[in-house]
Amino acid sequence: xxxxxxxxxxxxxxxxxxxxxxxxxxxxxxxEGEVDPKVLMSAEDIGEIMRVGKRFEMRSxxxxxxxxxxxxxxxxxxxxxPEGMEASxxxxxxxxxxxAQDLKDAGLSRVNISLDSLQRxxxxxxxxxxxxxxxxxxxxxxxxxxxTPVKLNxxxxxxxxxxxxxxxxxxxxxxxxxxxxxxxxxxxxRECPYHxxxxxxxxxLQRTAKAVVTRRMHHRKKYCLExxxxxxxxxxxxxxxxxxxxxxxxxxxGCLKPCLMRNDNHINVRGLRGEALEExxxxxxxxxxxxxx
Length: 293
Description:
Oligomer: single chain
Structural class: alpha/beta
Largest sheet: 12 strands, mixed
Strand order of the largest sheet: 7-8-9-6-5-4-3-2-1-10-11-12
């Protein structure tokens, strides 16, 4: 059974928020579009959601937060991912070092790690806490545990960290198994002085890259230069991003969320099992609309 919305977009990826809690306070955080969740899904609820996703031939799971490593049962949740589905995780990396190998052993394939500055004081200013050394240790631990490729998520901000672009490229080039993702700020920051338009950067990468590969998902391009692989993530006002969206999101309190940008069409599935949950999946996919079209 394959789920397609009315625009012909097949849903192949579940993006599951495990908790709204985080040990950082990043200045740009959009919290996966969640609005004040009160009750967290149980591991059993999450396991059933993943099993239904598998029945609908979804191929991958992405665990997010908040900071997913703040859940004590994270390793157990990862171990519940159905066979044949790829499991990955987005994290700020601060808590990753001691648990990276356990996550790999439980079945996690790879991680995305947020890294918005390579300068200690600047990192603390952006993230709200002085934890850059913990993040760098987490990156090394992820590579050692073969949670690769490790994708480094860098939210670019004009006048905040935009001058570090060459440093990020050099950092990624020195470390095997890293992919660098430069990410545009969410829309609510568009009028802020540190919102950065990424078209010029992408044009420069296009001009200087030794090779350019177009990824299937979102038709996003990967630029290869100086030993680094670099992607530009521009979800804002991007019709192509929406046209190729393959995700169905799940909030930490147990709602199916058809679109990151909307909070008015959630479907509560907490506690549901079997056919009742399958029907809610169909309802959620039927509600999917390209936000930018």
